[in-house]
User: Fold these one by one.
Assistant:
Number 1:
Amino acid sequence: MILGFLNLTWPVFADALALGGIYALMAVGIGLVFGVLRLVNFAYGQLIMAGAFALAYGGQWGWPNWASILFCFGVVLALSVLMDRLVFRPLRLHSPAVMLVATFAVAFLLQNIALLAFGSLGKTAGSLAVLQAPWDIGGVFIRKIAIIAVATAAGCLVLLQLLLTRTPVGLHMRAAAMDFRTARMLGVRANRVIAGAVLISGLFAAVSAVLLSVEQTQVTYTFALPETIVVLAGVVVGGLNRPVSATLGGFTIGFAYGLLGGILPTNQSQYLNSFIFAAVIVVLLVRPSGLFTRAGGAVERV
């Protein structure tokens, strides 16, 4: 297993950074909804799946790439709004357990709808396959998608941070996350704040759908499900109570997943999931509050 580290190359390192960036985007999308609603949305992966199917159909219908990407964003955002209006909002005053079970139900419902509508083989999203081509950077061939994924993730996270710290909507979201009842008494509109968090989370899901569709061109009803489970583990490891720590947790577990997947020999790659989740258990035993949180520090969820 130690000899596997001899397989570490710049392309493998770049791919690991790209996967870490995608997982960070998914992590911050999950963290935003948790920050405002105190809800871990297990249906988040199905939003990404729906966006990937939209992208695949856009390419199949002969649409230009920009139109397929817009279609992907439209489908994901529409589903996000419907999920909020039909599920989250009516159950908002119920216990977290009820809402958690509801997200499981939504996840399995969307998954089975996709299975019935598109079959077990799914569709091929090959319209952006050109991004798999390598770029020659100083004699090192690195896939375009690796560079684009890292740049996109960094840009999205910077824009989100500016939104949360420099705009009234972002400040209201942060206030609602810290103390929703007090924030409402001070004039913060609950529905507007929650709708904003859901829409921003949907935007990150749509971006993740586009990037993952390039990485995995075959879109099936289980698309993004394994990634969502790993990201959820990363969010908990990083620290669910703060967006920065949750994002770092998602990036860390994605980077580790990509790096180990690239350097491990083929006959040992089946142990990757076992190693990752064993490491998650160890981290939670040592730092149950999160790897990137300060023990006893103030809690700020958005």
Number 2:
Amino acid sequence: MTGSVPAAPRSVLLVEDDPGDVFLVQELLAEVDPALQVHVAESVTDVEAGDLLRRADCVLLDLNLPGTHGLDGLRRILRADGSAAVCVLTGLDDEHLGIEAVAAGAQDYLVKGKVDGQVLIRAVRYAVERRRAETSLLRLREEELAAAESSRLERGLLPSPLLAGSAVRARSFYRAGRTRSLIGGDFFDAVLGPTGTVHAIVGDVCGHGPDEAALGALLRVSWRALVLAGVEEPQLLPKLQQVLVSERHDPALFTTICTVAIREGDALVRLAGHPPPVSLLPAPRPAVPPVGLPLGVSADATWDALPVPLPAEWALMLYTDGLIEGRGPVEGEPLWEEGLLDLIVDERDTDLELLPARLVERAQQLNGGGLSDDVAILLLTSDSASVPA
């Protein structure tokens, strides 16, 4: 298969102090490509002072210029613009210097007196293409390294629930809406407290950027520390609001949260502007306490608790609103909580291990594609809960 022809450059910067050589290069290029613009500078100093590199697709650089020695001129050009495509011009007895120039960063070298117009324009075109390819590869590599570093950092921020010694199991699902990201502003956690109560949280920092992701991770870690320190359950949300207010980068930033405290025989549910959890057993139904304000809206906000009786076999699903804000089965309407309950009923025979991912899959099908917001799901069950939902 024949390779593609490199795109024609639009302008060339010729750095040459010999008027005869300048005239010759201009004539050779004009014969092959009359539309090509040729700008001339007599020294590297003129190039640096006039900011001429920005307007040139390729630089034709004479290595024997006044004020430079050897490869000094090339190094100064590349320091001024590391992405410049440079072809060096050497004398008949300086071919070894041309080879050294390529090793130092030039794209090619040409020997004066041995080139015609076709050779010259071909060298210019391929120099431009090689530099573009090198720049693209370098940028791709930098993006890959940044993505890998971001992935390692974000993966480390995803929690491992601390439930050893309790009669509660946790299953989780997380998918960030932000492109090339593992976590967003949503967060979740579950911890066995010092008094034997299992505490769980799901939250959503408004926004989708890295700052919101960092704040969500900070809130989760702070909440875990408060639980493990034995802070009484009614004080967890007020303390967490203090953390949010002191750490947020924008005074208008708020966070919605659902907390659950599981004791023997019941669970206490508190909502701070967040969708209610769903009790899956014996039949799907929402646990809807009075909905308080999101954290960060009012210093005087309060969050009342709703006791939810738990049977011998129970299952509670906490989730963020990214799961229900995509398109639902009714034209023009989001899925909302009612649509989610219908999906859960449809999936009543799905293994609990697979249920969170299956619900997200169903929500994406209804939405006609990926969900734009972050989705976090935390499914808590008793050890005695049967496997089918």
Number 3:
Amino acid sequence: MKLYYLQGSCSLAPHIALYEAGLKFDVEAVDRATHKTSTGKDFYDINPNGYVPVLEIDANTLLTEVPAVLQYIADNTAGTKLAPANGTLDRYKMQSWLGFVSTEIHKNFFPLFVPGVPAEYQASVKETLFKRFDHLEKRLAKSDYLLDSGFSVADIYAFVATGWGSYVGIEMTKWPAIERFRARISPRPAVQAALKAEGLI
């Protein structure tokens, strides 16, 4: 199994999940500017969309999109529970949170990282993000994790996505429950291992 990743991007979530799962895996970095991998491959030959993550399950099977990759990892752990059982209400709740983080937080951050995006549009995007953070804040003010059943891959994704605020001038202390959530997640050995592997600490 191999994860293609871009340092500090959304692919950090499956990188953390792989460590949490206790699975054996390799990684291959993608260069943001050249779209070449660390072994010289053209990343567009791996994913024509040109973005990470890509999880190479075997020589003939590639999986993309963060929610799908995270659930695959969670369902193939070496014993660690990272997702509720398929078919349960909790599983659907986790999928709901994965969808929320993907479409409402992750995607709304994208314009804030793109050079040349008009300031007016960035301000509008931030206003939307703040509302989404308010929703996340309300949930995390009531519970340590997104699911009542405990820590899951949805928490990993939320941890990664909310971590981008400091890079785009968003003061995350406005949302103290999110800050406490991040403080709970950050010391986990899998998180620290992935951050170290990507050269982020």
